[in-house]
Amino acid sequence: MKAFRHGLILSILAFFTSNAACGMEKVSLQLKWLHQFQFAGYYAAIEQGYYAAEGLEVQLLEASQDRKPTDVVLAGEADFGVSSADLLLIQASETPIQALAAIYQHSPNAFAAIQGNEIQSIHDLAGKRIMLEPGSADLIAMLKAEQIDLESIQFIDHTFSPLPLHHGEVDAISTYITDEPFAIRALGQQPLIFSPRSAGIDFYSDILFTTEEFSKSNPDTVAAFRRASLKGWDYALENPYSIIELILEEYPTIKSREALEYEALRSIDLIRPEIIEIGYMHIGRWKHIAETFQSVGMIDEIPDLEAMLYRDALPLSERYPLKLIGIGLLSILGLGLIAWKEWHGRRRLEAEIKRRKVSDELLSERENEYQNMFEGAPLAFIVWDINRTITHWNQEAELLFGWSAKEVVGRQKIDLIVPTSAMPILQEGINTLRQDGVRTQVNENVTKSGRRITCRWHNVPHKNREGAITEFHSIAADITREVKRELRLKHDRENALSASESKDFLIAQTSHEIRNPLNGIMGFAQMILSDTQDDEVREMSQTILDGAQGMLEILNDLLDSAKIESGQMDVTWAKVDLAGVLRKEAKLFSQLIREQGLDCDIHIDEQVAPIISDQRCIRQILSNLINNARKFTQTGSIEMRLSQVDTDQVSIQIKDTGIGMNAETLKRVFEPFVQGSTTTQRDFGGTGLGLSLTMKLAELIGGTLTAESELGQGSTFTLTLPQKPKE
Q1: Residue 152 lies in a domain
Q2: Does some domain include residue 344?
C-alpha cells in the first residue's frame, strides 16, 4: 500500500512538472546587496530545485551602490526585489507595490561607533559625521524620536566598508548587525551598537516585493515564486552550514567562512523561524510602522496597507486550469489526497519537533546569555514594571545602592533610591517612558545608608508581543566623583579668572603709576645729555636713559601680555603689504645694527601677495625679533627674509650670527622670563618676556613662531602667517 501511494504521488508530481518543463518562465530577483547569507533562502530554492518545480528559471541580480532595489524593480529591470520597510514610503508616494513576505521579523539596521571614543550614547551622535546607506528609514526615525537635530549631523554617502570608521574619517556608520560588527572586530576594535529596537522602533526587513502591476498581470508567477522562495528559506535555516558551503563554492563573495557563520547566527535571531512562520506579516504591525513614519514627519498620511500586502488567495481553478487536469485526475483524487495528507502531516510533525527542539535550545542559550550579561554588567542594571515593582536587580546595583536583590525584588522599592526632592523628576521620567519614549538623565540618588550620590541613567521601555509597554529597563552609572571634580574645576576656574582679573588690574594700575615718573626721569636725563659736555655726566645720563627705556619696555610687554591673556587685545583685520612692512622695520633698525658693526641684509620675494592680517601686531612681532637678534649678536650679520611657503602661507625669517642657545634653552625659549643663564642676563640685559609676548601675538593673528639655534652658531626665528584668517 505504501509503495502504491509513493508511486501515485510521484506520478502526480511528474504530471505537473512535465507541463512546466515545456517552457520554463524566466524571472529575476534584485538582491539588496552582494552575495552573502542574507539571501540564503533564494540560493537554496535554486539549488534544491524548488523554483524549477514551479516552472521558474530565476536569475539573481547583485545590488550596486548607486541604485536601490526598489528603483530597479520599479524601472522594470527586475521582476522581484528585496528591500526594507522603506516600501511604505514608496506606497505613500502613490507608486503601488506589493510586499510578498517579510523574511526578517526584526530590524537589522543600527548605528555603529567605536568603543572608547567620545560617543557613549545615541545623543552623542548630534553634530557628528555619520556614514548612512540608502533605505535607513528606521534609523532616521530613531534619531527623530530621540529629538536629535538632523541638520547638526553631517551625513556622508556609505562606502559599504567599516574602514572609514576604523580610520576615524567618520564618527559612526549605519550597519547591519548581521554583518559589520564582525568586520569591525576583525580590524581589532570593539563596536558600540545603537539599535532602533532600544527606542521601541522595530520594523520588518529584507522584504520580498514586486510591483502591483506585475502581481495583477502575473498572479500565478507571483504565487509560485513566493512559495518556492519561502520553501528555500525553510531549507536554508534548517541547513545553514550547507548553504554557507554553497555560497563559498558557487557564488562570488568577499566574505570568509567565519563571517558567513556569524551572519547566519545573527540572521536566525532576526528571522526567529522557531517562533514565527517564515515570511509572516501582520497588517497591525505594518500600521504601527506607518504611524512611526508619520509621527516623525516622514509621511503625511498612512497609505493603503491592504492594497500593499499580498494575499495568496487565488482559487485552484485559476492557478491550474481544469482542462490540464482532466477527468482522469478525479478518479485518483481521493487516493492522492489521502497520500498527500499522510505525507504532509508527517513532514509537518517532523518539522515541528525539530523546530521546538531548536527553539528550546535557543531559548535556553539566550536565557543563559542574558543572565550572564545581566549579572556581569559593569553598571547597575534594574528592571521594574509599570507599578514600580522591581523584577530584576543585578550585583552592581547591590554594590551601588546597598540594597540586596532579596530586599528589593518583588517589591515597590524603586522610590527608595530616589530622594524626596527628586520625586517630581522621577514622575516626569515615568510619564515619558509610558509614552514610549527613551529617557537619559542625570539624577541625585540615595543609598541604603543615606549617602547622596549622582547617577547618569538610561531608561528604555520594553513591550510585549502585543506592543503594550510592560516594564522598564534602567542602567545607572555612578558619576558622583565626576560631578564633584567638575564642581572643583569650575570653582578653580572662577578663582583663576578672578585672580587673573585682579592681576591685570594691578598691572594696569602699577604701569600707570610707574610710567608717569619714568617719562619724567627720561625727559630730565635727555635734557642733561643735550646740555652738558662733561663726559662723566653724559655717561651717567645715558645710563639713566637706557635703564628707564628698558623699564618702559618691560611695562609695555607686561601690559600687552595681560591684554592678550584677558582677551582685551583688539585685532584689526586688513590687507597688509608684508614687503613694505619688512622694509620699514629694516630701515628703522638698520642704523642701530650698523653702529654695532654688524651687516644688515634683507631678501624679499616680490611674488609674495598681500595678506589679510593685523599690521600693528606684525610690526610689533618683527620689532621684537629684530631687536632680540641685535641684542644677542656682537659680530657678523642679521638677515631678514620674506618668502612664499605655499598658496596659503607666507613666512618671515630673522636670522643672526649671535651667541645662539643650547638645546635646553631652545625648548623653553618662548616661555616667559626664560634666558640662557645668569651671565647672559647680566651681559645682554632684558627679562625674557619679549619672546613669550611675541609668540602670543603670532598666535593671536593665526600664525606660528618657531626657533632654530645652536650654541655659538646664532639663531633663526621663523614667523609663518596664513594668507587670510580662518573663519
Answers
A1: yes
A2: no
**Under 8 Å between Cβ of 28 and 69:** no
Cell of 695: 609668540
Among candidates 235, 279, 221, which has minimal Cα distance to 99? 279
Taking the model in full, what pTM does it have?
0.45
CATH number at 300 reads: 3.40.190.10
Pairing, β 172-176 against β 129-132: parallel
What are the residues whose beta carbons fall under 8 Å from the beta carbon of 231, sequence distance 6 or more? 45, 48, 50
Residues 696 and 633 in one domain: yes
| CA dist list (Å): 588 to 246, 617, 623 | 85, 17, 9
Three cell numbers written together for 137: 528609514
Same domain, yes or no, for 100 and 188? no
Q: Which helix (H) or strand (E) holds 561?
A: helix 535-566
210 and 306 belong to one structural domain = yes
| Same domain, residue pair 425 and 507 | no
To which residue does cell 507608486 refer? 95
Tell me, yes or no, whether 497 and 457 share the same domain. Answer: no
Per the DSSP assignment, residues forming a β-bridge with 547 are none
Per the structure, the count of domains in the chain is: 5
Same-domain status, 81 and 173: no
Q: What is the pLDDT of residue 515?
A: 58
Higher-confidence position of 229 and 518: 229
Q: Label residue 491 by pLDDT band (50, 70, 90).
A: confident
- C-alpha 219/C-alpha 254 separation (Å) is 36
**521-557 pLDDT, tens per residue?**
777 777 787 777 887 877 787 778 766 665 666 666 6
CB-based contact 407:413 (threshold 8 Å): yes
What is the distance between the alpha carbons of residues 183 and 166, in angstroms, rounded to a whole number? 10
Amino acid present at 323: K
Confidence tier at 471 by pLDDT (50, 70, 90) = confident
The dihedral built from the CA positions of residue 556, 557, 560 and 565, taken in this order, carries a sign that is negative
DSSP H or E stretch at residue 471: strand 469-478
pLDDT at 310: 92
Residue 51 covered by a domain:
yes
CATH of the domain at 421: 3.30.450.20
> 104 is written with which cell numbers?
526578517
The grid cell for 542 is 645715558
Average pLDDT, the chain: 81
Pairing of strands 129-132, 154-157: parallel
| Neighbouring residues of 538: CB distance < 8 A, sequence distance ≥ 6 | 528, 529, 532
pLDDT digits (tens, 9 = 90+) for 310-325: 986 333 443 344 444 4
Cβ neighbors of 233 (< 8 A, separation 6 or more) are 40, 41, 44, 45, 103, 271, 273, 278, 279
Q: Is residue 334 part of a domain?
A: no
Q: Note whether 184 and 230 are same-domain residues.
A: no
The 8-class DSSP code of residue 476 comes to E
Please give the average per-residue pLDDT across 587-610, as a whole number: 89
- In angstroms, rounded to a whole number, what is the distance separating the alpha carbons of residues 158 and 168? 14
Helix (H, G, I), strand (E, B) or coil at 669: coil
Mark whether 488 and 603 lie in a shared domain. no
Contact of 139 with 109, CB cutoff 8 Å = yes
Last residue of a domain, one of 566, 583, 612: 566
Q: Note down the domain range covering 190.
A: 109-199
Q: Using the predicted structure, report yes or no on whether residue 686 has a pLDDT greater than 50.
A: no
Residue 12: per-residue pLDDT: 45
CA distances from 507 to 514, 553, 555, 587 (A): 10, 14, 8, 33
**Final residue of a structural domain among 478, 505, 521:** 478
What is the helix (H) or strand (E) element at residue 100, kind and residue range? strand 97-104
Q: Hey, what's the cell of 32? A: 539588496
Please provide the DSSP assignment of 583-636 as one string: HHHHHHHHHHHHHTT-EEEEEE-TTPPPEEE-HHHHHHHHHHHHHHHHHT-SSS
State the CATH number of the domain containing residue 714: 3.30.565.10
